Amino acid sequence: MGTRLYREPKLEKPDMVAGWPGIGNIGIIAVDTLRGQIQAEEFGEVEPWKFFYPRKVIIKAGVLENLVFPSNKFYYKRFDSKELIFFIGEEQPTATGRMYAEGEKAYQMANLVLDVAERFGCQRVYTSGAAVAFTHHALKPRVWAATSSEDLIKQVKRYENTILMSEIEGRGDRGTITGLNGLLLGLAKKRGFEAICLMGEIPDYLSGAPFPYPRASKSVLEVLTNFLGIEFDYGALDEMAAETDEIIESIYEKIPTEIRVRLEQRKLVVQPKPQTITEVIPEMITFPAQNSIFTGMEAREKGSFEEWCSTCGDCILALTGGICPVTRCAKGLLNVACGGASNEKCEQDPEKDCAWCLIYKRLKELGKLDVLKEFRPPRAYRAVARPGRYRE
Predict the structure, then answer these.
(1) Which residues lie closer than 8 Å to 178 by C-beta, 6 or more apart?
(2) 135, part of any domain
(3) What element of type H or E holds 46?
(4) How many domains does the chain have?
(5) d(CA 272, CA 308)
(6) Which domain holds residue 117?
(7) What residues does 77 pair with on adjacent strands?
(8) How many Å separate Cα 342 from the centre of its chain?
């Protein structure tokens, strides 16, 4: 029992990306779709004999020809600035017949995978799976993240649409990851690897469905490919998601009305900070309900705060895709970008996204680019007295 390598590719400090089946097959779809698109080459496998029962027996002319087991294979890919190893398993080894890996077999499998990572000098291991959440299938799935170190937490927080698993409301700064995704994360840390697990949200009412949930796989890939610095074409994944969405809607319509009404309420997001609705439901046009006079928000990094609304009293969110240029643009420009952005980052602060690049993308998604042709006059600074004051 062990691994069998067909060749020894020459790799220098690659990252490993591992995926197995699970809820909605979110993780394995993300990992295997990436592997297929970059055309990673197979170079080895974990021998299946003591981990799995045969899936089928092939008999030819009355003679047993072969036993077919779930595959657990390694692949590799070289880029100019990045090298990758993939491990993709068709099944998780279990001792009790459950869906998720557990017991001695799971521990052995995880260590065999990490043995290969160690052999080729891997620095970081990524795993991916599902996060069952009280969300709605019409909303974009967020990506829950768990890491092996504080430094990786800082990296995770740089990416939009991600949230630390420990920060999910009601979890009390804790969380558990079942199966090989969690086990590999823990063993990787113990053996000295950096490790990140990325989990795409799936609504709780779809967690037992017998079909995949590629919308969450896409969310995972958006974060993963950013980490890896790889460009990715989401066309095939979008087609898969569209087909799945039709199935989900047909089932959703048959849910009893009283239950469906409660599920629909999940789409009505209470906005705890300015422009949250824009972030959570980007496909919707945002209109201001009032001109804010006192606002603030906590940043993703604990202990720091960011201003997303300057309470100018002259709100134009309806014209900018729900993204405020007054506060999110370093120059407060009201009529398109200054032209100084590089790689869509602000010239004043390269750590921040250019507000007008974000606005352009959002308006393009909404089919509202014609709004950019409208001239916006200078703001009415006297609409709200400065400095602001708040008294209870």
Answers:
(1) 100
(2) yes
(3) strand 41-46
(4) 2
(5) 12
(6) 3-251
(7) 84
(8) 25
